[in-house]
Amino acid sequence: MQQDRDAFYSNLKIQLEDTTKKWPTEYLYKFILPAIGNNTKIIEDIFNNTGAKISTRVSKTGKYTSYSIKIIMKSADDIIKKYRECEVIEGIVSL
Fold first, then answer.
1. How far is 86 from 92, CA to CA, in rounded Å?
2. Which of 21, 24, 31, 87 has its CB 3.0 to 4.6 Å from that of 67, i.e. a possible disulfide?
């Protein structure tokens, strides 16, 4: 499982570096989180004090919340670091 994630992030880093002409750049994270426990607080804490603009949308059933997070990132490594920080959130789906 860890190998799969490492391979995913290695490929993501290559794609980001190939497609991004200039750093720092604005990056859009998209996540879906189950509305359980303190998931909302955790994701907001991860992006707190970063200048990120966070938009949320609750599903019709109220069981999930989607997050769109726009943030200026300095490098592909910084983008991946945030993804790894978000992995602690139970049931998170990265889009």
1. 8
2. 31
Q: Which amino acid makes up residue 59?
A: S
- Domain at 49, CATH number: 3.30.70.260
Amino acid identity, position 38: N
Q: How many domains does the chain have?
A: 1
Q: Which amino acid is at 26?
A: E
Report pLDDT digits (tens) over 6-16: 899 999 999 99
pLDDT per residue as tens digits for the range 33-75:
999 889 989 999 999 999 999 999 999 999 999 999 999 999 9
Task: Measure the CA–CA gap between 40 and 36, rounded to whole angstroms.
Answer: 8
The burial of 26, by beta-carbon neighbours within 10 Å (0-12 exposed, 13-18 middle, 19 or more buried), is given as: exposed
Q: Which domain holds residue 23?
A: 2-94
